[in-house]
């Protein structure tokens, strides 16, 4: 008996899963922190992309919702303004913008053209953390940081020159023009003749600065589409080690069993349902104190696109559309697969319920387990007298929506 108990405690200590396949676990509490539903709520499980809720809280506390990432563009050598030619290199001073997309590169090319820059008879130099487009999270990106930066640089070279765009690039330009009322035919273009180098640049003459969307807008985009490149945000703040330390500090004694491998939810992370609820409540309280709400950084089915309306159809239409703010998590293979749904809703009486329900070891029946989770949530809402709808707020914004591109303080000077 004593040996069996020892083995059980060792399993819990190492964070191994203890739920059998098909068993649901859940936890929900009201606005006063009183439990209203609990089943294996202290059992560690893999929360998958629900980890992104903790990453969002971490980033917001460290940087603030209005934080903008700065990417600088400059040149080395000389600039012939009559021909629009730089004899030297175009330098990208990366500032860790996690959501720099082709349309942001178009904005930069447009500003460079406005200054008179048309061609670079040299290389593109990447200096500092810079990405363009999506990588698919930490398990898919290049392991070598220099190669990772070169890949981003090659994408930038293609995005800057209109003749290299391809079908996807032209579609992105067309959509950008539609949003901004620009003529599609006025394509910006800067040709870079050379290769891509990754190094520290010296004697750089400033040209253009690009400031990203505010952090809260970026987080909303990452969470709605459950994009694993949210890892970039955590990397800039000390990585998953710093994230785990932050959450342990916030959870205090309730952090037992918490273990993180990634900041996006890939891999073998561990939380309990109680911890997930505590993290959602903590993020919600922080947002409220700063004039925001969970709906400003997490998906609202019935308002936002992304995978949640498809996976939980009862939440996207009818009386429950816009009634919950949620984050889902899915892993098909890791730990035998898992499906998670966590979030918050307001009851008809105005009270709040925060919940987490998970199906560890969901394996090949993710769809059925999501149906069970949805049914559990519907019953929870009915049992609390219904749910109030929340306003949708501003529509989900593109990466360029609030980006600011301008000539640097010294840019354009002779």
CATH architecture level-2 label of the largest domain: 3-Layer(aba) Sandwich
Enumerate how many helices there are, as a single number. 11
Major beta sheet summary: 6 strands, antiparallel
Rg over C-alpha atoms, rounded to the nearest angstrom: 24 Å
Give the terminus-to-terminus CA distance. 83 Å
Structural class by sheet pairing and helices = alpha+beta
Mean pLDDT: 92
E-strand count:
16
Principal-axis shape equals elongated
CATH H-level superfamily of the largest domain: DD-peptidase/beta-lactamase superfamily
The number of domains: 2
How helix-rich are the residues, as a percent range? 25-40%
What attributes characterize this protein structure?
414 residues; six-stranded mixed sheet; alpha+beta; Beta-lactamase; 19% strand; 16 strands
């Amino acid at each position: 008996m004593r040996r069996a108990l020892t083995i059980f405690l060792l399993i819990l200590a190492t964070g191994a899963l203890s739920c059998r396949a098909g068993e649901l676990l859940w936890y929900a509490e009201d606005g006063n922190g009183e439990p209203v539903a609990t089943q294996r709520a202290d059992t560690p499980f893999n929360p998958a992309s629900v980890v992104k809720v903790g990453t969002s809280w971490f980033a917001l506390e460290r940087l603030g919702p209005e934080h903008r990432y700065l990417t600088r563009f400059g040149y080395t050598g000389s600039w012939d303004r009559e021909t629009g030619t730089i004899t030297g290199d175009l330098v990208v001073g990366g500032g860790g913008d996690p959501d720099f997309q082709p349309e942001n590169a178009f904005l930069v090319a447009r500003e460079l053209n406005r200054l008179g820059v048309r061609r670079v008879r040299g290389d593109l130099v990447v200096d500092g953390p810079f990405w363009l487009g999506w990588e698919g999270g930490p398990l898919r990106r290049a392991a070598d940081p220099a190669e990772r930066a070169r890949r981003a640089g090659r994408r930038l070279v293609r995005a800057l020159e209109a003749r290299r765009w391809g079908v996807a690039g032209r579609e992105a330009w067309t959509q950008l023009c539609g949003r901004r009322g620009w003529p599609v035919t006025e394509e910006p273009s800067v040709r870079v003749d050379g290769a891509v180098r990754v190094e520290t640049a010296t004697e750089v003459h400033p040209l253009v600065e690009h400031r990203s969307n505010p952090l809260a807008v970026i987080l909303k985009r990452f969470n709605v589409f459950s994009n694993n490149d949210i890892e970039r945000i955590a990397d800039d703040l000390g990585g998953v080690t710093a994230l785990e330390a932050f959450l342990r500090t916030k959870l205090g004694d309730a952090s037992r069993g918490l273990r993180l491998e990634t900041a996006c939810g890939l891999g073998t992370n561990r939380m309990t349902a109680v911890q997930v609820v505590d993290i959602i409540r903590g993020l919600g309280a922080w947002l409220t104190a700063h004039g925001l709400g969970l709906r400003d950084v997490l998906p609202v089915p019935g308002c936002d696109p992304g995978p949640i309306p498809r996976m939980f159809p009862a939440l996207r239409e009818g009386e429950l559309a816009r009634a919950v703010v949620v984050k889902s998590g899915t892993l098909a293979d890791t730990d035998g697969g898992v499906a998670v749904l966590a979030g918050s809703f307001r009851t008809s009486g105005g009270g709040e319920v925060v919940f987490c329900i998970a199906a560890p070891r969901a394996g090949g029946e993710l769809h059925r387990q999501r149906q069970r989770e949805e049914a559990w949530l519907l019953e929870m809402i009915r049992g609390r007298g219904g749910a109030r709808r929340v306003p949708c707020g501003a529509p989900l914004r593109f990466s360029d929506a609030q980006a600011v591109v301008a000539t640097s303080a010294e840019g354009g000077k002779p």
